[in-house]
Amino acid sequence: MLLACGVIRTEAHQLMHLRLLELFQDLQGIIREFLPDQVAVEKLFFGRNVTTAISVGQARGAILLAAALNGLDVVEYTPAEVKQAISGYGNAEKGQVQEMVRQLLNLVSAPQPDDAADGVAIAVCHLQLAHFLSLGDS
């Protein structure tokens, strides 16, 4: 069951340290509200746009800090691992992954916007892999 999903948006014109503070504070609120045991994040992928990669890395740092300060375990998955876990194919298109998430969670439509759908896919990937790995512990 999907409890909630969404994105944290900051103003593009804000200074980066203020955007990161807002992200961190919003994450702290989400952690207090939902009380997770773990945080699943996408492993950082370096594309061609170095500026975007640096910004994503900084945001990821705020996420990891929020998790650490709350004593949460962090697990990381590559985009291919998420695609493989959700659709059975590591090179699946974004639309295919979104449709599988919709079906797996029995949703009327895929989560929106795309970034929220990506986050839900990472969570579903983690739940599936954690369940699979726990079978070996029994």
How would a crystallographer describe the biggest sheet?
2 strands, parallel
CATH topology of the largest domain: Nucleotidyltransferase, domain 5
Shape: globular
Helical run tally: 5
CATH architectural type of the largest domain: 2-Layer Sandwich
Strand order in space, largest sheet: 1-2
**How many β strands by DSSP?**
2
What value does the average pLDDT take? 92
State the helicity in percent bands: 55-70%
Q: SSE order, as H and E?
A: HEHEHHH
Kindly provide the radius of gyration, computed on alpha-carbon positions and rounded to a whole number of angstroms: 16 Å
Q: Write down the domain tally.
A: 2
Estimate what percentage of residues fall within beta strands: 5-15%
Q: Gap between N and C termini, in Å?
A: 25 Å
List the helices and strands and how they pair.
Elements: H1 16-34, E1 38-42, H2 50-69, E2 73-77, H3 79-87, H4 94-104, H5 114-137
Parallel strand pairs: 1-2
Helix pairs in contact: 1-2, 3-5, 4-5
